[in-house]
Amino acid sequence: xxxxxxxxxxxxxxxxxxxxxxxxxxxxxxxxxxxxxxxxxxxxxxxxxxxxxxxxxxxxxxxxxxxxxxxxxxxxxxxxxxxxxxxxxxxxxxxxxxxxxxxxxxxxxxxxxxxxxxxxxxxxxxxxxxxxxxxxxxxxxxxxxxxxxxxxxxxxxxxxxxxxxxxxxxxxxxxxxxxxxxxxxxxxxxxxxxxxxx
Length: 198
Description:
Blueprint: E1 3-9, E2 12-23, E3 29-32, E4 38-43, H1 48-57, H2 59-74, H3 83-112, E5 118-122, E6 129-131, E7 136-140, H4 148-160, H5 169-178, H6 182-192
Parallel strand pairs: 2-4, 5-7
Antiparallel strand pairs: 1-2, 3-4, 6-7
Helix pairs in contact: 3-4, 4-5
């Protein structure tokens, strides 16, 4: 059963699910995933009391972002597909992605440089793509539901990580040199990514 935390904000008490991830880090961070779960990333020796204090201090940020995510989640398009139909359709999109995305990667790799070893197609809930240190590029099959230009942006983004394994200024310059309109593509994904569902 998920852990929950109660946060009082503007006279209203919100009970939200949360996860604590402890690691060898020096800083604290708070994020909220697409399902509205709060994720606390904290140093190893952080106490529960410290986490509750942080949640209280960041209550405005947590609740405003939580409500935005909840609104997006509630506004996702609903489908009349049966589970069998959805599974069959997903399979077709995955097959299409396995054929189409490598072609876009090959097209843009000459412009970005770097060497990749393989391409995988996955169904991540919160990521559109990733690039491993071993040169494996992974892409979300749901990109096939997006406009082609948006898919291309994600391809360029991950290819640029082959040379810049970070989001530094040099990384974004590399992205912009190949995909000048990347800011609008990022904005589109942020605003409409939750709509890319069957």
